[in-house]
Amino acid sequence: MQIYLPIAEMSVNALLLLGMGGAVGFLSGMFGVGGGFLMTPLLIFTGIPPAVAVATEASQIVASSVSGVAAHWRRKAVDPRMGAVLVSGGMVGSLAGVSIFRYLREVGQIDLVISLAYVGFLGAIGGLMLIESVQALRRGGAASKARHRDRGWMDALPFKIRFYRSRLYMSVIPPFILGMIVGALAAIMGVGGGFIMVPAMIYILHMPTNVVIGTSLFQVIFVTAIVTVLHSVANQTVDIVLALLLLGGGVVGAQFGARMGVKLRSEQLRVLLALLVLAVCGRLAYDLVAPPAFPFDVAPVLE
Amino acid sequence: MRAPAIIAFFAAALAAAGAADAQTLHAALTEQEISIDRGFAGARIILFGAVRDTEHSTLEGHDLVVIVRGPPKDFSIRQKSRIGGFWIAGEPVIARAAPSLYFVGSTRPLAEIVDDVQRERRQLGAEFLRLSFAGLPPPPTPAAETARPAEELTPGQARDLANPPPEKIDNPAYFYNLYRDAFVRAMKDDALYTEQEGAVRFLEGGLFQVTIDLPATTPVGVYRVIMYLIENGEVAAYRDDPLFVNKVGLERQIYDLAHNRPLIYGLICVLVSLLAGWAAALVLRK
Q1: CB A257, CB A27: distance < 8 Å
Q2: ipTM for the whole predicted complex goes beyond 0.95
């Protein structure tokens, strides 16, 4: 069943997109990851122009994060102050990211930069995930102890405030910068940034683990919403029809994935996810370095 | 594919070049617009028309060439070269006001119907399209000592400049041909430029039928449908009619909103996403 995407200006198979949304949603529900970093490359592989894939995926992440954050909020597992600082940084970062994106589109190198960014990130994240899940497998599922690092250099920073829910008294500069980085990545790559945010919150900001996921979701929702609006204004590449198709499959898949995740939480699945991420990375890298069948890029000039 | 949009051409006389009113191409349009809506996956247009020839009793020796030209647009063409292991596109050459879609159909292969002079003159066939480029590199000359900054050229062009192969020397059309061929090949790969011999068929009584397939990515705008009646290698009659391709309905409104009111559109997208996420969580989490 073909549907015409008015912004991407192409025709796609609606069932294929619903299925893709469902599959990635399932993985995200099961492993608690955003899924944006898998969905955007998959959209690009099916022929959606990268600029449309990145901008539209941001709006889909808004939807899939909303269902998660409500539950955490009720359990008071969100630190609104920390969230506010992160989001402020995120606003600055996403503004910068969307401007960079627009500039790259105008000089015609946006596809290359998106691919390079993904190869770098997926390679790093996939590698780390593989190492971590193999270690977890070897430990037979026992939880590892979080190492407490010496926070000396951060204590010296100015502008300290109290973050009550996280029981922290620290400078707003590190979370602001973290928010900025994640905001820029969300704008350029179409990801939520949770896979950077969560480890950074635990190991760099030393937030207690019970508020980490909820606060990260809080930040992701605001930043991806801002990114969606900015992309729409600056680039006009958000395709609402595509977003709805992905949403439909995604939220359903996420619910099933979350239920399965509770039952089957196993280290083997995490290894598989790491391998999947590395496979996507490999495919993108191959497309970048393989000699093209046709050594010319032809595209209409943007108005 | 959608149900075919059928365009029927009926009587309207046109002065024929050369032979005085001996042949006329008859055409009128009953449906002149292709609507891109939700289920659009390309369109098949079937043209019917008629040729009235008062001189001859049959249409033996006559051929028909039909060309459909999409709205003119600027395209950027960039040659890829290997830099640091990656294939990266270089400086753009702009094809100005090139047809965004090009279809040529004929009763017999074009080379058999008309000679190259005619093809050149009327631009019959993608290889004979006259394109206007901005930013073409200067043609290679045998004077390798000419000071030309190497950064302006891609590595391939620089290599060619330093040691031009014999056939490229002093050929001012070299880069024009290179980019023109690259552009036509890219458009053919995207199914926007197509050439179909046998797409035009003569039926009984001077009627003819042309089948044109437009891809799903066909551009929006005003197209030209140009028909040439060829007799003995010369153009005996000619017609140029418009064809309109437009997005309609919800798809059109979405597109217009996204481009004319991007802020509101973006906020609507966010709102829809928030509501959809909320609703899904409520419904599925009994």
Answers
A1: yes
A2: no
CB contact under 8 A, B39 and A2: yes
Q: What's phi and psi for B203, nearest 5 deg?
A: -105, -170
pTM over 0.90: no
Least confident of A38-47, A164-173, A185-194: A164-173
H or E element that contains B199: none
User: Rounded to an integer, what distance in angstroms lies between the CA atom of residue A116 and that of residue B186?
Assistant: 24
Segment A11-18 mean pLDDT: 91
Residue with tokens 């430990």: A139
A295 touches chain B (CB under 8 A): yes
B29-47 as b/e: b if 16+ CB within 10 A: beeeebbbeeebbbbebeb
Question: How far is Cα A291 from Cα A294, in angstroms, rounded to an integer?
Answer: 8
**What distance in Å separates the CA atoms of residue A254 and residue A33, rounded to the nearest whole number?**
10
pLDDT band at B11 (very low <50, low <70, confident <90, very high): very low
pLDDT digits (tens, 9 = 90+) for A25-71: 888 777 767 778 889 999 998 889 888 999 999 988 888 888 667 66
Instruction: Find, in chain A, the residue whose alpha carbon is nearest to that of B75.
Output: A300
Could you tell me which chain A residue has the CA closest to the CA of B73? Answer: A300
Chain A residues whose CB is inside 8 A of the B285 CB are 67, 255
For the four alpha carbons of A199, A205, A206 and A210, in that order, the dihedral sign comes to negative
CA-CA-CA-CA torsion sign (B51, B55, B60, B63): negative
Residues 6+ apart with CB under 8 A from A59: A224, A225, A228, A238, A240, A243, B269, B270, B272, B273
B87/A73: higher pLDDT? B87
Residues of B in contact with A9 (CB under 8 A): 217
Please, which residues bridge with residue B221 across strands?
B245
Residue tagged 């060309």 (tokens): B67
Cβ–Cβ below 8 Å for A251 and B251: no
